[in-house]
Amino acid sequence: MNADNLLFRCSSLGSIMTEARSKSEPISETAKAHLLEVYIDHKYKRRKVVTTKYMEKGLQVEEDAITLYSRFTKLYHAKNEDRISNEFIAGTPDLFNGNSIHDADTIIDIKSSWDIFTFHAVIGKGIKKLYYWQLMGYMALTGAKNAKLAYCLVDTPDTILNDEKRKLHWKMGLIDDQNADFEQACNEIDRLGKYDDIPVNERVHIIEIERDEQAINAIYQRVAECRQWMNNNLYNIILNN
Fold first, then answer.
1. Same domain, 32 and 101
2. Closest Cα partner for 156 from 187, 121, 114, 202?
């Protein structure tokens, strides 16, 4: 496999941008592990899939979160479906402000919080490195000068809440649902999954970052280093295992 023209997804930039423990080694162990997954994806068309209840909710409520964000900003936003790329990276930003995705002023990435506790846990803590590099990649692709990470607190779908209830039912070792403690716990699960009683302005938290040309150039440099590492090392690593 020749990695010279391999494009890296913006959502994966946080993995390759981790710093190695040794200054003489540009590629960290975290990055190497990711590059092996990239190799398998491109050569064998198998992508490692990790699914959690948090990810499942995020996928299911994406449109609800965009609607909530639109209500919060009092501006209509539609999900961007265009995948864009340059010679180094590729990605599909969620939303944008501007003339087009190729000429955007601002990029917006939506994150749906699992519950009210995870929503409030991010307030005042700054942006995670994973999301920082993802947004920097989106700005590199679109020309945007700033980006927003919008955490949204929307209702959890009933299908997911019912899964939580079934898991609880099994853990409690119940034969049927006629149990006062179980009923009370189910009511609490429902209450922790529904948020229409909370004002819109208390259900959206935004973190903004500015475009940083040095950071973007660092992404391009790291992509080049990753391509070189893959070309020089992956075959021998796989052959010797």
1. yes
2. 114
